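Throughout this chapter, every protein is written as a compact record of paired, labelled lines. An example of such a record is reproduced below:
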Amino acid sequence: MPTATGHATTSIEVKDLGTAQGWFNHEDGTTQFFGIPYADIPARFRHSTLKTAWPNRQWDARKLGGHAPQPERPFYPFPMPARDHLGEAFIDEFECLNMQITLPRGCSPEDKLPVLVFIHGGGYVFGRSCYGVVDGRPLARRSIELGMPTIIITFNYRVGFYGFLASDDIRDDNKQYGGGNGNFGVIDQKNALLWLNRYIHNFGGDPSRILLTGQSAGAISVDMHVQSPWNNLFSTAVLQSGTIPICGMYTEEEYHVLYMKLLGVCGIDKSLPPSERLEALRNVPHEIVSQQTYEVFQGLNLPQFGICLEPYIFGGKEKIPTPSWYNGGKYDNYKGTLVIGDCMHEAIIYDQAFRDYSVQHVTDLVNKHLKPDLAKDTLIHYNIHDGMTQQELYLACEALATDGLFTAPPYLVAKANPRAHVYHWDHRSQFDNPWGGFAHHSLDYLWLFGGLHGIQTEEERELARSLQSDWIHFANGQPPYPPTGAEGFRRVYGPNSKCTLETAATYKSRPFEWFERIRNELEDFDKLCTDIIMRRPELMSYEYGPGTKNAVKVTQGKPLAL
């Protein structure tokens, strides 16, 4: 008997774990399990461990699980699909490592269906997989329409200080627990993949056919997993708007600066012995720690954490790629299918960072970070000059940061890896906010999941179906368009809701010649971009930030766009 409108309780047996209760959805025949735990967190700032037992061999997966603590999310609101039967999402620092599993109609444990796994973005500060807009039902329904039934997975992982902070104190403390310094959220994700490889067959999934896709920080994560020793845990990798460097990369010494600033704003005596001040920080309630994010990041409206360049994460065998690696770097250690793409106006998300810059300030940054010839060419290419309007400078900063962080790396990856499949998202937003009219960061994944179906035009819904079809084909081992190859093939979504296949010769919406100009200077160009969007030198200096004469007034959660 249905226990909620349109939904009935169902259950499934998971070998070695027990029985999970979920929801059968009468409308479309999908079955869903929410909040299924995949790992345990032994302590703040320690790596998680794979979960291999359920209490009393039971798990109620009919309600949303907890998600990681995080500050107020400074984005404009957008309509969320109603899911009243799941209850409210909630914060739980130590019970946040859980996943949502959506099974297509007719799926049974005896099947061996492909599995599409999505890693959410959010700059490693924000984000959770329990948003209604990334519910797996529309994508699972689309897989049935295509005759390619596919299981859809989303999951939570630790973000913010809890998932990525590193320091000398944290490194020394973790030596007795196997090592590690920062990057805790990445190991959480690895444990999610390990859990799926071990248990997804109980739900009808094939662990040898896992497509791993991620957007923004989620794409950083996919890139990390592709570069890792455990890249055999998935068969297809999709990087949506991101490679490892996009959120900035931090040495252990640089992260220690952020750690010391956090101690200060939490009222912890920084002169205490390292073990004592770390323990004191562990005892600060997460509500207080999360509130300090904007303070530590010197008032940035969109703070973001990045990967820590520490040796533990890859077992000391491989080095984490830095920006220069993407000039000719080959993904030869990964044997699966590789897909990489971008949006036309990625860096518009940082508009509050550079909206009020002056021409002189931007010119000074360009001359500071780039060699004279490239600095001159950069000012010419982006038409940065005295007398330009504030809006013109704003758009120039957006284009510069988009190219340096988001669109040049995929181009160079494709050049060095002709087997990669490339796409571009050029469809512009119709939302009534400051990003309306731009093909902005994050727009593609909203179309992928179909959560905004109710407010889209029929043309936009058709574009969403095309995008969904492509990802489902990749998940089923049937690439829907050719690898980039010598011709430079690329799928283009938009503008005007069109979906086409083009080549490097016919596609003119990315400055490929400019990418060739900067390819040998990626490290310097990356530093310029992160200075523009994050004021990186100030962030890494003890002379700036909370408690200093250079501290800025912080307004938490000042609205950005979607």
